[in-house]
Specification:
mainly alpha, 11 helices, globular
């Protein structure tokens, strides 16, 4: 007996749309009017795209959120690594994040060809990504830091600080050649040596 094809769930349809959108953006760029080409590639109608994801801006936002969530899934083992020293593990996580971003086809396509679309996610529109990062990273920092270490600073603040370091290393060039892993690792170590320096005993009259 022939089985009837199952109807895709809303979640499956959304993933199908986003998969097609990712392929289209990599091939055609961020400035392309996406709905027609995504609909053709996904085998769906344009009204279906609007229903399950939204307009072009909503599609880009949904893709970005999905990629960030995927990134934290692969970052998780790095944060749970065997290295016991907190600073070493932090450096490993930052280096991993920067290298991951530099090999990410969708992100690099946008930074190279349509920076006006992508850069706001790391700058003026970064708050949602910072909040998501804090939500996902806070449990790790609560586990990695001792109660004494967390008495003076919140895990949310540490998460935001980490995001700002990683974001700046992804989108800006500097004097240090951070495309070289060894140079990147040494640079991040130097930043952490400043962050973990003991506070000077300064008396202001």
């Amino acid at each position: 007996m022939r089985t009837q094809p199952t109807t895709p769930t809303p979640g499956e349809l959304r993933e199908r749309i986003l998969d097609a959108a990712e392929e289209c953006l990599i091939e055609l760029g961020y400035s392309t009017r996406l709905h027609a080409v995504i609909a053709e590639r996904a085998g769906l109608s344009r009204p279906t795209l609007y229903k399950y994801v939204g307009d072009q801006s909503a599609i880009l936002d949904a893709l970005f959120q999905r990629e960030i969530s995927r990134f934290f899934v692969v970052l998780d083992p790095v944060l749970r690594g065997r290295q016991s020293r907190l600073q070493v593990r932090f450096v490993d996580a930052v280096v991993f994040a920067v290298q991951y971003a530099r090999e990410h086809r969708l992100l690099q396509k946008g930074l190279r060809d349509d920076p006006e679309v992508v850069l706001p996610w790391f700058t003026v529109n970064a708050k949602p990504m910072i909040e998501l990062g804090a939500q996902l990273l806070t449990p790790h920092f609560e586990r990695l830091f001792s109660p004494d270490q967390l008495s003076g600073v919140s895990p949310i603040a540490i998460s935001e600080w980490a995001f700002r370091i990683i974001g700046s290393l992804i989108i800006t060039e500097g004097i240090v050649d951070t495309s070289d892993e060894r140079a990147l690792r040494e640079f991040v170590r130097s930043l952490l040596s400043i962050a973990f320096m003991p506070q000077p005993d300064v008396h202001i009259p």
